Amino acid sequence: MADHIKIRPATGTWVVRAAGAVIGESTNALELVEGDYPPVIYFPRADLAMAFLERTDLNSTCPYKGEASFFTIEAKSGPIANAAWSYENPKDSVAQIKEHLAFYTDKVAVEQV
């Protein structure tokens, strides 16, 4: 793993809400800390309502984690574009985040409950 990236189990229960609706709750989330950036919570796909998430055409590449795919949340009030991302085939050094999604906290609420 890159020395500046740390991944550990996120303590407690974590919830992600979009437009007021809970789309995920997990006691198996991961916390990823990369350098000086704020921690990011990665939710296992199994703990998310994936029926409300649609993969988009947007991709980005991180030299440490690999290629990220993005997802729009189909909320009752309308789509929340590119609100989540996933490293579907992450680099070996961060393999724990495979099958997990993270969310932009300026688009949805990610909270420990």
Relevant terms:
113 residues; mainly beta; Metal Binding Protein, Guanine Nucleotide Exchange Factor, Chain A; seven-stranded antiparallel beta sheet; three-stranded antiparallel beta sheet; globular
Structure description:
The chain is an all-beta fold. It has a single domain (5-112), classed as Metal Binding Protein, Guanine Nucleotide Exchange Factor, Chain A (Beta Complex). It is 0% helix and 56% strand. The strands form two sheets. Strands 1-4-5-9-8-7-6 form a seven-stranded antiparallel β-sheet, with no helix packed on it. A three-stranded antiparallel β-sheet has the order 3-2-10, with no helix packed on it. It is globular, with a radius of gyration of 13 Å. The relative contact order is 0.27.
Quickly describe the structure.
Residues 15-105 form the DUF427 domain. This protein has 113 residues and is mostly beta strands.
What is the arithmetic mean of pLDDT? 96
Rg (C-alpha, Å): 13 Å
Distance N terminus to C terminus? 29 Å
Number of strands: 10
User: Could you name the CATH class?
Assistant: Mainly Beta
Portion in strands: over 45%
Number of domains: 1
CATH architecture: Beta Complex
Compute the number of helices.
0
Anisotropy-based shape? globular
Instruction: List segments where confidence is low: pLDDT < 50 over at least 5 consecutive residues.
Output: none
CATH superfamily: Domain of unknown function (DUF427)
Largest β sheet strand count, sense and barrel closure: 7 strands, antiparallel
InterPro entries: DUF427, DUF427_sf
